[in-house]
Design a protein that fits this description.
Order of helices and strands: HEEEEEHEEEEEEEEEEEE
Mean pLDDT: 79
Strand content: over 45%
Radius of gyration: 21 Å
Shape: globular
CATH class: Mainly Beta
Number of helices: 2
Helix content: under 10%
CATH architecture: Beta Barrel
């Protein structure tokens, strides 16, 4: 079974690097300022990385009060597949105990026996709209987390699902009704639905993580007319983060995120968050289109957590990126050890 899964991972990455990039592309993938709140939708290798079932519900709104303003909704759920053995938490997930040496009595790094492979499963649904364009995606995800060194794991993940992209041409006025792009969309009944695969790698321990993933590996056709055609763009993502324990109650978490699809300019986010006693956090980030974001989150109890961010453009040329509100609600289910989430 594991051999077949590894072959699937290899084939997915081979396809990601060998398929040609289309000269014409469609709507870009969704973007989140709080990407760390929904990492599974970016890199399937993070599926099941938590020590509990992690549920996230998120909403992102741009240009509040403007008709057709970009909006994104998402729901994601993932969990490790548990064995009959008692499983402990990650060391960096506070157990709220006074004797840290008790961690050494647990059954191996990250709470899993070193001889075992950790498996994770999950899924997510994302709805994203930008003016006359809209897309909805639903994916199921699996990851295998392998112990490759003391306290160090490498995870391999793959997700597969359906993308539906739509255009509302009733809101479009064209000068030339014979415009080939307009006709091509019309011939596709103004929408397309296709199957696609994403794949990722993720290396991590209690103090850092680094990951790479590829989305839209199949690069499906958006439309294919006799005169014009367009494909979805293969998109590459990178993630990097660290945990710096400043004191017994303070944790600094710097991180970076990068995305590129070859057709649009490369984008990256760099930022940091300060976490206080696993109860609340606050931070800021900078995106290379001259946009900054402030953010904060709080754990209401051991089950609920909520976070909010606001993006602000530093110059007039990027007003399209300004005034973005984003909120995420998290649920930690079957969290028997009452641990905090991983070091996002």
């Amino acid at each position: 079974m594991m051999k077949k899964l590894y072959i699937l991972f290899i084939l997915a990455f081979f396809a990601a690097n060998m398929l040609p990039v289309a000269s014409s592309s469609g709507q870009q993938l969704f973007r989140l300022t709080q990407y760390f709140n929904n990492p599974m939708a970016i890199n399937p290798a993070t599926t099941g990385i938590e020590g509990f079932m992690d549920v996230k519900i998120g909403y992102r709104q741009q240009w509040s009060g403007v008709d057709g303003a970009p909006e994104t909704y998402y729901l994601s759920i993932h969990s490790p597949l548990r064995s009959n053995q008692s499983q402990a938490s990650y060391r960096n997930n506070a157990l709220r105990i006074s004797n840290p040496s008790l961690y050494d009595q647990l059954d191996g790094p990250q709470g899993y026996s070193p001889s075992r492979v950790k498996h994770g499963v999950g899924g997510y649904v994302i709805s994203d709209s930008q003016g006359i364009f809209a897309q909805t995606s639903g994916f199921l995800s699996y990851a295998s987390h392998l112990l490759v060194g003391e306290k160090l794991r490498l995870s391999l993940g793959v997700s597969a699902g359906i993308n539906n992209q739509r255009i509302d041409v009733s809101q479009v006025t064209v000068i030339d009704p014979n415009d080939p792009t307009f006709i091509a969309y019309g011939n596709q009944q103004r929408q397309t639905t296709d199957f696609d695969v994403n794949a990722g790698l993720f290396l991590y321990n209690d103090l850092f993580y680094v990951g790479y993933s590829a989305a839209r590996i199949f690069q499906n056709n958006l439309y294919n007319d006799s005169e014009i055609s367009a494909q979805q763009q293969l998109t590459h993502f990178g993630m990097l983060g660290f945990r710096l324990n400043l004191s017994e109650t303070l944790m600094l978490m710097p991180g970076a995120f990068v995305a590129t699809d070859g057709a649009n300019p490369l984008t990256y986010d760099v930022g940091a968050r300060l976490k206080v006693q696993d109860l609340f956090w606050f931070g800021a980030s900078y995106r290379n289109n001259n946009t900054v974001a402030g953010m904060a989150g709080v754990s209401i109890n051991n089950t609920f957590n909520i976070s909010y961010s606001y993006d602000y453009g530093l110059s007039g040329i990027n007003n399209m990126e300004a005034g973005i509100h984003e909120v995420a609600l998290g649920l930690t289910l079957f969290n028997t050890r009452q641990v905090a989430p991983y070091l996002w």
